[in-house]
Amino acid sequence: MSLVIQEVRNAIGIITFDNYDRRNALSKAFIADIMTVMNSLLYEEVRVIILRAHPGAKVWSAGHDIMELERPGRDPLGYYDPLEKIIRAIQNCPTPVIALIEGGVWGGACELACICDILIGGPNASFTITPARIGIPYNPSGILHLINRCGLGAAKEMFFTAQSVNAERALRLGILNHLVAATELEDFTYDLAEAIARNSPLSVSVIKEQLRIFSNALALNPETFERIQGLRRLVWDSEDYIEGKKAFLEKRAPIFKGE
Known about the structure:
Layout: E1 4-9, E2 12-17, H1 28-43, E3 48-52, E4 59-61, H2 82-92, E5 97-101, E6 104-106, H3 108-114, E7 118-121, E8 126-128, H4 131-134, H5 140-150, H6 152-161, E9 165-166, H7 167-173, E10 178-179, H8 185-197, H9 201-215, H10 222-236, H11 239-250
Parallel strand pairs: 2-3, 3-5, 4-6, 5-7, 6-8, 7-10
Antiparallel strand pairs: 1-2, 8-9
Helix pairs in contact: 1-2, 5-6
């Protein structure tokens, strides 16, 4: 049974998250279904893709399925992690991807949303980046994606505090392109998607790829990259990593010792 719903309207592909019992957590199965539907929509030559939860959702996505995080001593967000695969798929998707945001966006779902080309949110949209709350490291590309979206200062605050950014502030920070009343959200999103679909798909695709290249134009020498990986290993080898996951599953506040 698929965890997403596929629809096509006038060359616009719509992917509706349909795993609400799990708050649309980004499990391997859920991500696989999103990628399968994305490929199907591209085969149908849609010109825009919209990612959304069900209308009126209180949670867009709860983020990485914590039950599937790697065991201590392993990188929890390695290159071949399903979350990293779907993020690259959206980046490399030749058609623009719009995130229609209703409800909370948590953890890795923040990166998934922020890597979309355009974000349109309702008044109940919020964004919370949670690795420090759970005691896990974040990967370099994910940090860069958030910096590209909202700037260094805002990214620092979001990562350090793990506090939610509401819709109005998300608009000011540039996370949201548009903040729209709940009653107008769907019509506004589809109108914008139709405006894109009317343009040259080849031109739009090439421009999207150029923008992706420019946004990633940050050179790191091998020594610096190795140091970043070494810093991250300090976290995924730590007792705090074990405590963070355990506390989450036990639904209690973690007791971090910095060890």
